[in-house]
User: Which sequence fits this backbone?
């Protein structure tokens, strides 16, 4: 392992007084990040850096042609003091899928794991205490770095991982939120990059998200780009609905395969629910007893209602404005596994030694 910059010096500055219980979901500077470069057809050694900036050529493919992929996962400090990382192999595999989709060099799963464990250990003092309900957000980033002006894949890449302590994604935490259907913007096309975790998908969502917030909603709700008939995603999260003891989530070639949703489907099945992954028409929203948006950031954000302003409809999911019993049970079970309060019978957690 090579050390860059000031890593070989002890950082003497005192830990700021962090209000762990009131953390926002945002960036906070931590001590170190880690980097691995791909050059001459091979991945190099892991480097540790305390520098927050990247030295990039102005003609790097990530800047011009969108050769950029990222992931998001979390580390949790348990009541027993142990630090657990949730499903990192799944994130590694999804990153490889994205690399295949936009022709980037694939980082081996073991190298991904090496980088994640290293950066978490180096920044252990930033992992929030158990009782705060906060966590350490881990952001792996892969970018094309070689200089070129022709539209073709880069031959050099940089893999970077940084971390930051975070609170809940939505200010209210585990509480219901209102959504609004936005038809005038599409997040992704059925045969586009929706199934990959690339920055362009999020750039495409910014205008719709801004409009939803201006209208007083927590987030935008997308229908499929081709027919505007089927449910796609809830902002940057997967959708699921509960009815007749069944967990239903949309199946589409434009939806990012959420690791949280995959986990919830397994938990729902083991709780005795039937699980269906299929196209879900908009009008079916009227039949759900519970519904939620799910992802790494929020785990589950229960849905209060989904308004279709263009057609003058309001699909009220939560009649009393509170999370439903199945959403609550799923949320508590998944969080329990993440924090070590529930046994990890699935092998989802990696304990940081």
Assistant:
């Amino acid at each position: 392992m090579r050390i860059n910059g000031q890593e070989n010096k002890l950082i003497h500055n005192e830990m700021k007084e962090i209000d762990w219980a009131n953390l926002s979901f945002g960036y906070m500077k931590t001590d170190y990040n880690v980097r691995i470069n791909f050059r001459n057809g091979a991945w190099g050694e892991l480097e540790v850096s305390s520098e927050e900036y990247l030295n990039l050529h102005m003609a790097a493919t990530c800047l011009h042609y969108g050769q950029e992929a990222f992931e998001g996962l979390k580390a949790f400090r348990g009541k027993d003091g142990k630090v657990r990382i949730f499903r990192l192999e799944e994130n590694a595999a999804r990153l490889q899928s994205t690399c295949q989709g936009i022709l980037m060099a694939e980082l081996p799963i073991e190298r991904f794991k090496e980088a994640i464990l290293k950066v978490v250990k180096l920044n252990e003092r930033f992992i929030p205490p158990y009782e705060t309900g906060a966590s350490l957000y881990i952001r792996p980033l892969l970018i094309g770095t070689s200089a070129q002006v022709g539209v073709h894949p880069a031959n050099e890449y940089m893999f970077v991982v940084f971390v930051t302590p975070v609170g809940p994604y939505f200010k209210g935490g585990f509480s219901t939120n209102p959504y609004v259907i936005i038809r005038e913007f599409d997040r992704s096309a059925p045969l586009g990059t929706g199934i990959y975790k690339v920055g362009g998908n999020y750039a495409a969502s910014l205008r719709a998200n801004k409009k939803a917030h201006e209208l007083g909603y927590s987030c935008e709700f997308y229908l499929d780009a081709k027919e505007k008939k089927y449910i796609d995603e809830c902002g940057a999260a997967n959708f699921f609905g509960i009815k007749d003891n069944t967990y239903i989530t949309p199946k589409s070639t434009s939806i990012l395969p959420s690791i949280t949703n995959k986990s919830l489907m397994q938990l729902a099945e083991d709780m005795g629910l039937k699980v269906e992954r299929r196209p879900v028409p908009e009008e079916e929203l009227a039949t759900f007893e519970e519904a939620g948006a799910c992802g790494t950031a929020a785990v589950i954000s229960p849905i209060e209602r989904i308004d279709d302003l263009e057609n003058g409809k309001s699909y009220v999911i939560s009649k009393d404005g509170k999370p439903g019993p199945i959403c609550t049970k799923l949320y508590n079970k998944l969080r329990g596994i993440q924090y070590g309060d529930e046994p990890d019978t699935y092998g989802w957690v990696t304990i940081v030694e």
Remarks:
- The chain is about 20% helix and 30% strand.
- Residues 5-14 have pLDDT under 50 and may be disordered.
- The first strand starts at residue 2 and ends at 3.
